[in-house]
Amino acid sequence: MLKYAKTVVHSHHSKQNIKTKFPDLYIRKPDIKEFKENGVVFVDGSYEEIDKVIYCTGFSYTYPYLDPSCGLTVNKDHVLPLYKRLVNINEPSMVVLGLVRRACHVVALDAQVRYTTALLKGDFKLPSKEEMMNVWQKEVDNINCNGRPMSDLHLLGDKEDQYYRELSDESGIERVPPVMSKLRNVSNETKLENLFTYRDYIYEMIDDKSFRRTERVKKRERLDGKVAESIVFVADDG
User: Fold this and answer.
1) Which Gene Ontology MF annotations are present (predicted)?
2) Which of 12, 101, 107, 174 is least enclosed, having the fewest CB within 10 Å?
3) For the chain, which residues make up each domain, given as ranges?
């Protein structure tokens, strides 16, 4: 859009530290308070004239086919109570897959499926309802004590590798290699550093704990003598 618009007004409330240097035609704004005939008023009281609006507001959780008797409470941005972000504590024969944020979703979903399969096969047993509820309640208390939203019940982030380790330790499934979480973290940091160039890298896994990131050099740049930068990253022991 920056290539074609005279001005781009970006309204968002992300708390991530985006370090990208944007051109002057990019204007960052907080949440929208209201729309006017020819523009927008933001929660800080400022106003911008707007020609076109593109909604990128995410999505809400909804399970209209679930009856309240299943024991789950479904809110627009979180579902509870879930043990390991997965098992319905009130009806532990029921699991809800894929409710994780800030994670390598394909990897996380695969780990959850393998955990569930091991449970169905009888390879391990879940803790008692009371024990699962205690584990879940500690997560809730931690979120509340730090003033975080309840949607963070589904947040993995820098605890993604720990989550995979816990699933593996409890169920006996093969552990997700630590390199996967490290790669996602580095890729995300690269994106925050520069939203314009973060795709200009090739990632190559070396082993379960390390990977190589190589800069993608364009043909014209190679002719000019530019050499691709290559960096090896190693995951912490987990």
Assistant:
1) flavin adenine dinucleotide binding; N,N-dimethylaniline monooxygenase activity; NADP binding
2) 174
3) 8-49, 68-176, 181-234
What residue type is assigned to position 172 of the chain?
G
The separation between the first and the last C-alpha atoms of the chain, rounded to the nearest angstrom, is: 41
> Omega before 64 cis (within 30°)?
no
- Token pair listed for 34: 């209201």
Give the closest residue to 173 by CA, choosing from 118, 222, 125: 118
HSE of 62 in the Cβ direction (CA atoms, 13 Å)? 3
Q: Is 211 exposed, middle or buried (0-12, 13-18, 19+ CB in 10 A)?
A: buried
Residue found under tokens 């160039």: 197
Give 89-98 pLDDT, tens digit per residue. Answer: 999 999 999 9
> What's the predicted TM-score (pTM) here?
0.83
Residue 40, C-beta contacts closer than 8 angstroms, at least 6 positions apart: 9, 11, 32, 34, 47, 48, 50, 53
CA distances from 115 to 119, 126, 209 (A): 6, 11, 22
Task: List, edge to edge, every strand of the sheet that includes 201-205.
Answer: 201-205, 210-215, 230-234
3-state secondary structure of 204: strand
* pLDDT of amino acid 82: 97
Distance CA 231, CA 177 (A): 19
- Please say if the pLDDT value at position 236 is more than 90: no
Q: What is the pLDDT of residues 45-61, one digit of tens each?
A: 999 999 999 998 777 88
